[in-house]
Automatic annotation (TrEMBL):
This is Aminotransferase class I/II-fold pyridoxal phosphate-dependent enzyme. One of its GO terms (biological process) is transsulfuration. Its cofactor is pyridoxal 5'-phosphate. Keywords: Aminotransferase, Lyase, Pyridoxal phosphate, Transferase. Transmembrane segments: none annotated. GO terms for cellular component: cytoplasm. Belongs to the trans-sulfuration enzymes family. Gene3D superfamilies: Aspartate Aminotransferase, domain 1 (3.90.1150.10), Type I PLP-dependent aspartate aminotransferase-like (Major domain) (3.40.640.10). It comes from Maribacter polysiphoniae. SUPFAM superfamilies: PLP-dependent transferases.
Length: 406
C-alpha cells in the first residue's frame, strides 16, 4: 500500500546542525564555495544541491519544500514569498507573449486581476469559463493555450473542480493543468488526480496561525528547477523567494496540519447542517444539496472531511455587514479576509477578496451582495458557537427565534 500524505509527512525527520530535533535555520543571504569552478557550475545550472544566494535557494526553504512535496505527492516543491508569488511565477514560466490561458471564472480576486488585467502587458489573454462544464472548457482551448488553471475548491463560491477529468482534457491537448489547492490541503490531492502543478497559499490552512505570507509550487524536478534557473527562471528572476526564518516557522506548524484540518471540517460540517436546517441558503461541499457533493466524495480523502469554508447568503449587503460586525462584537471571530486561522474569519467577498471582479461578472457567476464567506475555526464547543451565531441572526431578523418545546 502506498503511503498517504500524512504518512509521508510523519516520516520526514531532520536533525539540526548540532543534533537538534528541529533543522537548523540558515540565516544567510549568500553562501560560500570551496572552488571557483563550483560557483561557475552553479550559475550554469549544473550543480543541483549547491547553495548560491537565498533568492535561488536555501537549506530552510528546501526543508519546507520537501515537506510540501510529501504533502502533495510531487517530486519536489519551491516555496515562495506569497501565494501570488507562486501563481505569477508559474504563469510566466509557462506562457510567452501572445499565449492564452483557460481559467475557472470563480477564482481568488487577486488571481483574476493578474490574469485579466496585468497579463495584458505581455499580450497574454485569458478565457474565464465555468470550470465544472468540461464541454465549455474544451471549446475555450486554442492553439495558443498554454495552461488550464483552476482552484480545487473555488474561492469564494466553493465550486468543485473535476481534476481527473480536467487532467485528461489537458493531456489530450498537450497542455499542463495547474491547480490551486489552498482551500483543501489533505482533503484533496490534485497531483494524484493528474494535476501537473499544484499551488498553495501557505498563508492559510497550511501555516494556520495568520502570522506570515507565503506560497508554494509543487511539481516535477524539471519544472521546479526551471523556475529557479538563473538565466530564465521566473521564480528566480521575479524575486518571489520566501525568507528562511518564515520557512522554518511554517515547517513547524505543518506538524499539526492533519489535526487542524479534521477539526476545521468537523466544525464546519456541524454549522452548515444546522443553518441549512434553519432554512438559510448555505453552500458547503459536505452538504448533499451542494452541486459537487457526490463528485467530491468520489475522489476526496474522506478522513479529513469537506474543508473549513462555507458561505451563507444573508439576502443583502447591509444584513451581511451587520451580522459580521455583531459576530465580531460577540467574540465569535474576526471580520477579516484570509482563512485557516484558529478563530473563525468572515468577510463579504463581493466587496473584499473578489472585489477585483466586475459587478456584472460577479452576478453572472452567482456571487451575490449578501454572501458571507466563513472560515470556521477550531472551536472546542461548536454547538455553543452555533447558538451564539444564531442569536446574532435572530437579533438582526435574519432568522426567527426557535419556538419553545411544550
Amino acid at each position: 500500500m502506498k503511503n498517504k500524505a500524512t504518512d509521508n509527512l510523519q516520516d520526514l525527520q531532520y536533525f539540526g546542525e548540532y543534533g537538534g530535533v528541529n533543522p537548523s535555520i540558515s540565516d544567510s543571504s549568500t553562501y560560500t564555495f570551496l572552488s571557483a569552478k563550483k560557483m561557475f557550475d552553479t550559475f550554469e545550472g549544473n550543480t543541483e544541491g549547491c547553495y548560491l544566494y537565498t533568492r535561488h535557494s536555501s537549506p530552510s526553504n528546501l526543508y519546507l519544500g520537501e515537506a510540501l512535496a510529501a504533502l502533495e505527492g510531487t517530486e519536489t516543491a519551491n516555496v515562495t514569498a506569497s501565494g501570488m508569488g507562486a501563481i505569477t511565477a508559474v504563469t510566466l514560466q509557462l506562457c510567452d507573449a501572445g499565449d492564452h490561458i483557460v481559467s475557472s471564472r470563480t477564482i481568488y480576486g487577486g488571481t483574476y486581476a493578474f490574469m485579466k488585467n496585468f497579463l495584458k502587458k505581455f499580450n497574454i489573454s485569458t478565457s474565464f469559463v465555468d470550470i465544472t462544464n468540461l464541454e465549455v472548457v474544451e471549446k475555450a482551448i486554442t492553439p495558443r493555450t498554454k495552461m488550464i488553471y483552476c482552484e480545487a475548491v473555488s474561492n469564494p463560491l466553493l465550486e468543485i473542480a473535476d481534476i481527473k477529468a480536467l487532467s485528461e482534457l489537458a493531456k489530450k491537448h498537450g497542455i499542463p493543468l495547474v491547480v490551486d489547492n489552498t482551500f483543501s490541503p489533505l482533503s484533496i490531492s490534485p497531483a494524484k488526480l493528474g494535476a501537473d502543478v499544484v499551488i498553495h497559499s501557505l498563508t492559510k490552512f497550511i501555516n494556520g496561525s495568520s502570522d506570515c505570507v507565503a506560497g508554494v509550487v509543487c511539481g516535477t524536478n524539471d519544472f521546479c528547477l526551471a523556475l529557479k534557473d538563473v538565466h530564465s527562471g521566473a521564480g528566480m528572476l521575479l524575486g518571489s523567494t520566501l525568507d528562511s526564518l518564515r520557512a522554518a516557522s511554517i515547517l513547524k506548524n505543518m506538524r499539526t496540519l492533519h489535526i487542524r484540518i479534521k477539526k476545521h471540517s468537523e466544525n464546519t460540517q456541524y454549522l452548515a447542517e444546522s443553518f441549512e436546517k434553519d432554512g438559510l441558503r448555505v453552500v458547503y461541499p459536505g452538504l448533499k444539496s451542494h452541486k459537487g457533493h457526490e463528485k467530491l466524495k468520489s475522489f476526496m480523502n474522506h478522513e479529513f472531511g469537506f474543508g473549513g469554508l462555507m458561505t451563507i447568503d444573508m439576502g443583502s449587503l447591509d444584513k451581511a455587514n451587520a451580522l459580521m460586525e455583531l459576530m465580531q462584537e460577540r467574540k465569535l471571530g474576526y471580520l477579516a479576509v484570509s482563512l485557516g486561522f484558529y478563530k473563525t474569519l468572515f468577510s463579504a467577498p463581493g466587496t473584499s477578496t473578489s472585489s477585483e471582479i466586475p459587478l456584472e461578472e460577479q452576478k453572472q457567476m452567482g456571487l451575490s451582495d449578501g454572501l458571507v464567506r466563513f472560515s470556521i475555526g477550531l472551536d472546542n464547543d461548536i454547538e455553543r458557537t452555533y447558538n451564539i451565531m444564531r442569536e446574532c441572526m435572530v437579533e438582526l431578523n435574519i432568522l426567527e427565534p426557535k419556538t419553545a418545546m411544550v
